[in-house]
Prior knowledge:
By secondary structure, this protein is α/β, with parallel strands linked by helices. 31% of the residues lie in helices and 16% in strands. The protein contains 24 helices and 28 strands. The strands form eight sheets. A seven-stranded mixed sheet has the order 5-4-17-16-15-6-7, with helices on one face. Strand 1 and strand 2 form a beta hairpin. Helix 2 crosses helix 16, helix 3 packs parallel to helix 16 and helix 7 runs antiparallel to helix 9. One ligand MGD binds next to helix 5, helix 11 and strand 23.
Amino acid sequence: MTRTTVHRACTLCEATCGIRVTLEDQRVVRIEGDPHDPFSKGHICPKAHGLGELQSDPDRLRTPMRRTESGFVPIGWEEALDLAAERLAAIREVAGNDAIALYRGNPTVHDAQSILYWNVLQRAIPTKSQFSAGSLDTWPRWVQAGLMYGGFLHTPVPDLERCEYLLILGANPVVSNGSLMTAPGIKRRLGALRERGGCVVVVDPRRSETAQIADRHVAIRPGGDAAFVLAMLQVLFAEGRIDLGACQGRVNDLSRVRECVARFTPERVAAACGVAPETIREIAREFATAPAAAAYGRMGASVQRFGTLAHWAIDLLNVVTGNLDREGGLLFPRPAVSLGFVGPKPGEDVVFGRYRSPVSGHDEILGEWPMAAFAEEIESEREDRIRALVVIAGNPVASAPNAARVDRALERLEFVLAFDYYINETTRHADLVLPPTAVLENENYDVALLHFAVENVAKWSPAVLEVEPGMRPIWRTLLGLAKRMMGLGALADEQVDALVVRQLVPALLERSPFAGKLEIDAILAGLGDDPGPRRLIDLLLRLGPFGDGFGLVPGGLSLASVAAAPHGLALGRLTASLPESNRTASGRIELAPERILADLPRLDAWIDASLDTGGDGGRDPGLSLIGRREIRSMNSWLHNLPSLVKGRERCTLEMSPFDAERLGLRNGGQARVESRIGSLVVPVEVNDRMRPGVVSLPHGWGHDRPGVQLSVATRRPGVNANLVFDDAEVDAPSGTSVLSGVSVRVSPV
Length: 749
Ligand SMILES: Nc1nc2c(c(=O)[nH]1)N[C@H]1C(S)=C(S)[C@@H](COP(=O)(O)OP(=O)(O)OC[C@H]3O[C@@H](n4cnc5c(=O)[nH]c(N)nc54)[C@H](O)[C@@H]3O)O[C@H]1N2
Ligand SMILES: Nc1nc2c(c(=O)[nH]1)N[C@H]1C(S)=C(S)[C@@H](COP(=O)(O)OP(=O)(O)OC[C@H]3O[C@@H](n4cnc5c(=O)[nH]c(N)nc54)[C@H](O)[C@@H]3O)O[C@H]1N2
Ligand code: SF4
Ligand SMILES: [Mo]
């Protein structure tokens, strides 16, 4: 028996923790936090152990599967790829590229080969029918940041190490481990902030696990964040507490902002957001007078009725108090690998709505339609309807609102191809399922999440295990399909991959610090012949801000130098970076983008309607439903790993004792939850964490659909929360689905 240890990063959530994996022969015997990782310093959560269980999960697919009359049967790789290309090409022939929908799910963000080679497939199937989990998640942030700073991946993050006042709106990092704020060991970081005399304030309708370790919790009414923060801004303008700090002379339209916020007085918004005027004033003054403060909003501020307005208001607060680009406030990270080449060129504005979705006319956002348009574009009788779907690492039946409708829509498709580990709620509809290799078989560099890291770091993750016999890495699978769709099926993967690199180099160089200083041929020669993600990552690193510029910067980064540091490399704290970090065409931060201001009347109407009803769901027979995450889950997909689902039932409806009593519900009893679009039955959990009038339900459950092949998950399936979230409700500027603050009725069963 040989015992070996490998160091790498966990890819299950956004925290990118360093792990130490111990093997006996080819068997994982232990997974621990890596104490020498300069970023995570030994932190891990229980999910890391799931990496070993994922490896050995008997339900995980280890060969391509084809659906037949009598169920799924194995099929060979080349045969599967030929079949997929043939079916997709036939549909394209009749109905064009737009008849093929592409959906990219969340785990792609954590896996470089999936992101980079999905991009290749996107070019091989240039369809307007692109979708992703982004419109169930980050779009309000991308739209707001894109319009204000000119680049959607380049958003500022709280400088946690030096922050003295952290205002968290609609995020629960103690459970989620941080999102759009890559910060492993967040609990330790928040503890340190408080120990040095700083203050953490959490705004959340639920007294979340993060609120429980904060100095103050504000139980806001769902959807109230934009109103709440705009009222803070009204107070600051009215009291003359505006000080732009580093942003002085670098912004447009400050006076326009002053005019816009004037009507949002604390008295006017109090009922709508459920927060007393005095509390709003107090927090506004504390924020403005703290030596360094940061306001940070995430899912609860994003997938709600006014997600884009909320994110806009949050960043305005940071700007007008001088906290943007200030140490201890918010700073722009400097990732060693930048995916900026997928966005606009510096100096070009981000534009949205370049075209509209056929059925309801949703604006295109970042080259995609929102998921709110997904089912209707399939159900449509129009000639240009969606007829086929290619889905990678996504489970829209679990993750998109109006799940029952999405489920039915998938039945109508002529062809579904899925790249996934499992036959689950979505992939059971697939004609073909092509599995990726398991996390520990992949080598990886985090090309996405380090854009949001609270410290600049670089880390290479080697594969821990050999690829199982008969399996193939997903980049080869994606490239194999892409080349067939491009009519290059006769070429070897290596040849097509060389073409991919050749195309990418000019786009990357143009946006790199080495633009004008390097010849394309010199870059290609320096890269070598190894195909695959490795070469792309080497390229991205070497042309990045810390890169060796293919010899121009001795000691600069390359894949070789990053891989030589098994625990990862610390590249220094975040630093002030304006004006370079701002990429708008005007060269200034745009404080009052029209697209965002145009949504203010909708907020006005909501605030005024809340005044009429007293604004408190608790006095109304209806309740407001919000979501919840749990430390052992990852959206819909870790429920088949025994150690992550053992213990108490987690798919429960949390509610306050006040609501339980008035509705005749008790702890452990069953409740029916009904909304405009559907209903479900779920066990009740009564606790004092919930704001009266608000109930919470986690998403990602409901594994009891016929045909699902998850032997552990189906034993405790839970219920799909998206049976009641309404696909008709969206945040107007971004088209993002509203997955929080939906009206429901709850009754005993
Ligand atoms: N363990 C675990 N970690 C995860 C995930 C997981 O499923 N499990 N998922 C990952 C993913 S994909 C993401 S996007 C991130 C999300 O990361 P976070 O945003 O940090 O996580 P959530 O739990 O969604 O937190 C949202 C919070 O907003 C609150 N909220 C709901 N509505 C409102 C509102 O209207 N206003 C305010 N102010 N608050 C509101 C909720 O009560 C909740 O506490 O987590 C990632 N990490
Ligand atoms: N009601 C409600 N709905 C929500 C949310 C909410 O808070 N409330 N949160 C939303 C958010 S933030 C998100 S990000 C979405 C997530 O929604 P999705 O991205 O659609 O789905 P996931 O549940 O993450 O499922 C991921 C799928 O990918 C597979 N998979 C895992 N790793 C890999 C891999 O490396 N390669 C491949 N090819 N497949 C892999 C898994 O088996 C699973 O089928 O859900 C959204 N939906
Ligand atoms: S917090 Fe947990 S799931 Fe997230 S990267 Fe760290 S160990 Fe993995
Ligand atoms: Mo997400």
